[in-house]
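S1.2 Input.
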Amino acid sequence: MNQTVRNKPTFSPSPSAEAVLADSIGDAAFATTLAKGLVVLEAFRAGATLLGNMELSVRTGISRPTVARLTHTLAELGYLRYDETIAKFRLGARALRLAHPLLSDMQFRQAARPLMQELAQSVRGTVSIGLLDGTSVIYVETARSGDVGHAPDIGMPIPVVQTAMGRAAAAILPAAESALLEARIRLDDGAAWSAHRERYETGIRDCAERGFATCYGEYMPSIHAVAAPLFHARELRETFAINCGIPAFRLQPGQLESDIGPRIKALAVSVRSLVNEAEPVIEVRHARPGSR
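S1.3 Output.
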């Protein structure tokens, strides 16, 4: 049996290159040009896969001449690909290479996948593992039943504050790091914090009290989800959660909490046992003054 220990996750309060760039003005050791290049790469995302220099300048706040030099360099290196017919860039294949060493270090994904697939088939939904990254959780593994229209993609980010997965991952953080996370959410997206704060805090309390958090369509109206804290990986020093998403029309009233929640909690226990990771200690928290 795994011993329950208190791990020490490290939350990065400035997750994006753009935020770090803004926070590092005056730091003589900070490579500003490199940071700007990463800001340009991070401007590409689902729904914005083709961008020209002017669009990149508007999105990043970097001057157009500087953007032009950066995109030229990134294209020469293979991280961007230029489409001459529309005078826009898209991410190049070399950018994809950066993800492989990170994913290959997460060997527990392969051990967990058969169990994830079994639950996904049983509930006719999806089961995924996410990695906490600043104010987002990034999907690093996913399994689905054959009749689910929506399935998360590996590498897709979702917001911490309005998802069961995000709440379950945030629940693992010690109080001091949780405060940093909440401060960053309020700074980055005050409207989302105001709209979802109460359910976010309830989700973290639920993780402490019953081992899982719920989300009734706050992120995707057609999908209801539960998620359980997974672990803070000792070697990787990263925080993970596991979720199960099901089309809302397939759920009976109360089924998410009475049936699916306990099953995702049990799956988290099984995955930890397989990979010899300790059960995370979750602190019971109360709403902090000024968090509204």
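S1.4 Remarks. Residues 1-9 have pLDDT under 50 and may be disordered.
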